[in-house]
């Protein structure tokens, strides 16, 4: 499910980990008679030695190129902000040797997919197409794959398996190779989607997500993805990142409030209330935190209540909720109560995009029509979000530090 206003964003992941132990030659033990010849050199302990597992792994990988030992760590993926805060994408490396694709990271879906070199549609031709025949680590799967989104866009193709690396974190996993894409994907800046939701909403049953596989392989220090989405208005749209396996405490103020996931699938949590114009609006709902949706989408009743506190706002049948573009100069906020804490969305970000018709109206960053609310990028670019995939999954949230 992908719902946006004037925008269509989506993403997807499929994954399978292949971690093989290294067989060691057994040593002689008690009861073994060993004849020693030559000069014996006693070993002594260096009291100043500092253990560095990552360095030793790197040394082994270089010494024995036929093996690949992964140490626990983290990986940061820098983001490009597609104007203006429309979509955020980063570079992902696929295969051996690596082929780079630009993927839109999406906590609202669970598949990874991008165009195959076999795709001949116009949408595919406008993007980087992955050539599986050039990758020595590619494995055929044979199953068909298809996905559709709320705006009517679709993609389909076949499944395969290859090494997928994000910020240096690598696993062998299932990927969707699109051999057909609908026209909507042709105009987007990214080549495909990288889903970060749970495996229960994978397009093909039984496929594991990238995070499932990275956690199982032990390649992450922590089972988390931390998200900093930049804002053109607040910092010029620079410095954004997805941080796999760690949390960057320099990006936010105060402490993270962890909100339990009420239903794994989407990153679904309880939204306990909304405050606007200095008053509690008496609205609450279940909702999802979705990096693949540009705006905040709430129920019709909640959207009406929020915009009732904004002078000059209107509900246009063709463009949805509109607000005066002068709202960009406001220093006020609306807030959503999550886990007992209020998290702000500046009114300045509700003036999302000028209609350009001379009316002085902007498309609002908050729209109605959704019973399961969606806290999209308009929310996330103001609040650091840590998607924690433990046995009891939760989302850690704190105000961004600019």
Topology:
Layout: H1 53-63, E1 75-78, E2 80-82, E3 87-94, E4 99-106, E5 112-115, H2 122-125, E6 139-148, E7 154-166, E8 169-181, E9 192-195, H3 210-217, E10 224-228, H4 232-235, E11 241-244, E12 257-260, E13 263-264, E14 267-271, E15 273-276, E16 279-280, E17 285-289, E18 296-297, H5 300-307, E19 314-316, E20 320-324, E21 333-338, E22 341-346, E23 351-354, E24 361-364, E25 366-367, E26 373-375, H6 377-380, E27 383-388, E28 394-399
Parallel strand pairs: 4-9, 5-8, 17-26, 18-25
Antiparallel strand pairs: 1-11, 2-3, 3-4, 3-7, 5-9, 6-7, 7-8, 10-11, 10-27, 12-28, 13-14, 14-17, 15-16, 15-21, 18-26, 19-20, 20-24, 21-22, 23-24, 27-28
The strand count comes to 28
What is the CATH homology-level superfamily of the largest domain? Acid Proteases
- What is the CATH first-level class name of the largest domain? Mainly Beta
The parts where pLDDT drops under 50 for at least 5 residues are: 1-71
Strand-residue proportion:
35-45%
Total helical elements: 6
- Order of strands, main sheet, comes to 1-11-10-27-28-12
Radius of gyration: 24 Å
CATH arch. level architecture of the largest domain: Beta Barrel
* First and last CA, distance: 31 Å
The proportion of residues forming helix, as a percent range, comes to under 10%
Task: Report the biggest beta sheet as strand number plus sense, adding barrel if it closes.
Answer: 6 strands, antiparallel
């Amino acid at each position: 499910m992908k719902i946006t206003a004037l925008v269509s964003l989506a993403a997807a992941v499929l994954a399978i980990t292949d971690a093989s132990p290294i067989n060691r030659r057994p040593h002689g033990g008690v009861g073994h008679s060993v004849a020693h010849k030559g000069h014996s050199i006693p070993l002594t302990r260096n009291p100043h030695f500092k253990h560095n597992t990552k360095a030793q792994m790197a040394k082994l990988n270089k010494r024995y190129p036929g093996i690949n030992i992964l140490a626990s760590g983290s990986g940061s993926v820098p983001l490009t902000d597609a104007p203006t805060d429309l979509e955020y994408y980063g570079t992902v490396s696929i295969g051996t040797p690596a082929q780079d694709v630009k993927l839109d990271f999406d906590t609202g879906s669970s598949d990874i997919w991008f165009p195959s070199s076999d795709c001949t549609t116009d949408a595919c031709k406008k993007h980087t197409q992955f050539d599986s025949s050039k990758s020595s680590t590619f494995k055929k799967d044979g199953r068909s794959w298809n996905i559709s989104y709320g705006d009517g866009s679709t993609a389909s193709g076949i499944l395969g398996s290859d090494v997928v690396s994000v910020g240096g974190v690598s696993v062998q996993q299932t990927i969707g190779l699109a051999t057909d894409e609908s026209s909507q994907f042709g105009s987007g800046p990214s080549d495909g989607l990288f889903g970060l939701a749970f495996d229960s909403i994978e397009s093909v049953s039984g496929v594991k997500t990238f995070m499932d596989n990275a956690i199982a392989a032990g390649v992450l220090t922590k089972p988390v993805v931390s998200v900093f989405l930049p804002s053109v208005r607040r910092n010029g749209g620079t410095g954004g990142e997805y941080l796999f396996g760690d949390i960057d405490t320099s990006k936010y103020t105060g402490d993270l409030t962890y909100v339990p996931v009420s239903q794994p699938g989407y990153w679904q949590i309880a939204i306990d209330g909304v405050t606007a114009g200095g008053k509690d609006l008496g609205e609450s709902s279940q909702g999802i935190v979705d990096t693949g949706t540009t705006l905040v989408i709430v129920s019709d009743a909640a959207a009406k209540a929020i915009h009732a506190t904004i002078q000059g706002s209107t509900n246009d049948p063709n463009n949805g909720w509109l607000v005066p573009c002068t709202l960009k100069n406001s220093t006020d906020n609306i807030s959503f109560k999550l886990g007992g804490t209020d998290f702000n969305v500046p009114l300045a970000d509700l003036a999302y995009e000028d209609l350009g018709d001379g009316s002085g109206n902007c498309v609002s960053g908050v729209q109605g029509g959704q019973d399961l609310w969606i806290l999209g990028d308009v929310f996330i670019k103001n609040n650091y979000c840590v998607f924690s995939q433990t046995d009891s999954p939760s989302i850690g949230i704190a105000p961004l530090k600019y």
